[in-house]
Structure formats: structure tokens, C-alpha cells
From TrEMBL:
Biological processes per GO annotation: negative regulation of DNA-templated transcription
Protein known as: CopY family transcriptional regulator
Biological classification of the source: Bacteria, Pseudomonadati, Pseudomonadota, Alphaproteobacteria, Hyphomonadales
Similarity comment text for this entry: Belongs to the BlaI transcriptional regulatory family.
GO MF annotation terms: DNA binding
Annotated keywords: DNA-binding, Transcription, Transcription regulation
Coiled coil: none
UniProt xrefs under InterPro entries: BlaI_family, WH-like_DNA-bd_sf, WH_DNA-bd_sf
Amino acid sequence: MSQPNPSELAVLKHLWSSGAQSAREVHDAIGAQQGWKPSTTRTVIARMEDKGWVTRQDIHGMAVFTAKLDRTATLGGLVRHLARQVLDIDGPIPAALFAESPHLSDAELDELDAIINAAEDEASDKKGGV
């Protein structure tokens, strides 16, 4: 699965923290800081829906969107990509680096650590033939 781009990540972070929202509510919350017009917000959300990253539910004639991607798994994938592909870091990645993030609870930090470093364990197993 591909990783969310910065626009998609902004929408996901908003939906993770706020829950189900209409495109207008998403736009009102993050559109100005992203420099988006309402049509841009709707386009980003529609593409995310096509990718299966958000779900749409019609409530009283209004489309409401919910993040379908798991927050911890998504953030773990982004951290792993940054560390391995961008920074060329080998070895365990301490999830404690993200302890100050308002987006993660202590339990989610533990889960993030497992996600980041479990992928490394699997890669080591495959390389070693185990």
C-alpha cells in the first residue's frame, strides 16, 4: 500500500482527532492552513475515498467521511519510510522519539514501536532465510 501524501495526511489527522466530518467541516478546520479552496478539499477526500482510506456515509442527505486507515499503522509506515528510505537508518527505531506527539497515546506509542520494529524483524528473517 502506498503512503498518504501531505494533503491526505492532513485530512487523516483531522479525521482521526475529530471523528466523522463532512467535506465542509474538514475544509473549515484545515483548508485555510493548507491553502485550499473548498473544491480542493472535496477532491482530496474523493481521491482518498477511491483509495479506500476514508469511508463515506450519507446522513440526512449529507456526506460524512471517516478515516478508514488505522492511525498507528499509518504513522508507523511513514516513520519506517522516513527512517529507512530517506535517512538510511539501520537498526531499531525508538518510537519514544514521538512521545511528545499529541496524536499518540502511550498505548499507541507502544503499538507504533512494535509496528516499526516488527517490519525490521520480518526483513531480517527474510534476508537470513529464517
